């Protein structure tokens, strides 16, 4: 499942440049029975299978014995804290991230005592933690120094002085609308401001559009100090 996404685009380039190193571990390598079993029936009955705590613990012990430096161990879990861009920035500061992927009915509850944090990528149910692990990896790797091309970094910095002037609670905004050639298509034209060459005015316009789009499509991302107490944090 991981080979395709990790062999393309920015993640591929990051690995080629040694800005990021990704290791995939198969839990079956730490199973002790002849069938390489990593899960079992849940105590108390119920549908599905639960991944074993002893297998995961042995895997973690082996991995941690190989690495040095600040490490964050994360269990992908529906009950975890919701992943966002702020967390991506926090995770990018660690030398190592260990992402544990559950599957089907999940993992033995005791695994939560072996990790630093549980993380969810959204309020929905997936078959396993593999896709969330890919999402987190993509979001974190692109933030590592030297991964993005200089022009991509500069593009984001073009209005950073405006964004940084906003309250911290308004920093997570949707991206402003982007345009390219042709200048006019079927009566739809590129906004004149983008053709002006005035980079400061363009930055101002982009920030206004980002705020407008966020208020329209994701208003929960904009929090203000004047919001009623019952609404804060939504």
Structural features, described:
By secondary structure, the protein is an alpha/beta fold. It folds into two domains: 5-141, SPOUT methyltransferase, trefoil knot domain (Alpha/beta knot, 3-Layer(aba) Sandwich); 150-231, Trp Operon Repressor, Chain A (Orthogonal Bundle). The chain has seven helices and seven strands; from the N terminus they run αββαβαββαααββα. A hairpin with a 2-residue loop joins strand 6 (184-185) and strand 7 (188-189).
Q: Descriptors for this entry?
A:
234 residues; alpha/beta; Alpha/beta knot; 7 helices; disordered C terminus
Bin the strand percentage: 5-15%
How would you name the CATH homologous superfamily of the largest domain? SPOUT methyltransferase, trefoil knot domain
Provide the CATH architecture of the largest domain: 3-Layer(aba) Sandwich
CATH class value of the largest domain: Alpha Beta
Q: Can you tell me the CATH topology of the largest domain?
A: Alpha/beta knot
Give the beta-strand count. 7
Oligomer: single chain
Mean pLDDT: 88
First and last CA, distance: 34 Å
Domains, number: 2
Helix content: 25-40%
Question: TL;DR?
Answer:
The protein has 234 residues and is an alpha/beta fold.
Please specify the SSE layout and strand pairing.
Blueprint (H helix, E strand, L loop, with lengths): L8 H8 L22 E2 L9 E2 L1 H14 L4 E12 L2 H7 L4 E6 L15 E4 L9 H12 L8 H8 L2 H4 L20 E2 L2 E2 L9 H19 L17
Parallel strand pairs: 3-4, 3-5
Antiparallel strand pairs: 1-2, 6-7
């Amino acid at each position: 499942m991981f080979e395709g996404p990790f062999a393309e685009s920015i993640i591929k380039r990051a690995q080629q440049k040694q800005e990021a190193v990704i290791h995939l571990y198969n839990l079956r390598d730490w199973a002790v029975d002849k069938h390489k079993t990593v899960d079992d029936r849940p105590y108390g009955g119920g549908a599905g299978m639960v991944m074993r705590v002893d297998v995961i613990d042995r895997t973690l012990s082996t991995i941690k014995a190989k690495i040095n430096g600040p490490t964050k161990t994360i269990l992908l879990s529906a009950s975890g804290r919701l992943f966002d861009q702020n967390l991506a920035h926090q995770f990018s500061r660690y030398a190592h991230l260990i992402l544990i992927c559950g599957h089907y009915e999940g993992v033995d509850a005791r695994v939560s005592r072996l990790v630093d944090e549980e993380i969810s990528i959204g309020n929905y149910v997936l078959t396993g933690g593999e896709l969330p692990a890919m999402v987190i990896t993509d979001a974190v790797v692109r933030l590592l120094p030297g991964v993005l091309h200089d022009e991509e970094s500069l593009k984001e910095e073009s209005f950073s002085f405006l964004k940084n002037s906003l309250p911290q609670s308004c920093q997570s905004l949707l991206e402003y609308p982007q345009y390219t050639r042709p200048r006019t298509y079927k009566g739809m034209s590129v906004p004149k401001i983008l053709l002006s060459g005035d980079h400061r005015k363009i930055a101002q316009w982009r920030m206004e559009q980002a705020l407008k789009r966020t208020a329209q499509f994701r208003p929960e991302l904009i929090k203000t100090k004047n919001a009623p107490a019952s609404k804060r944090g939504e």
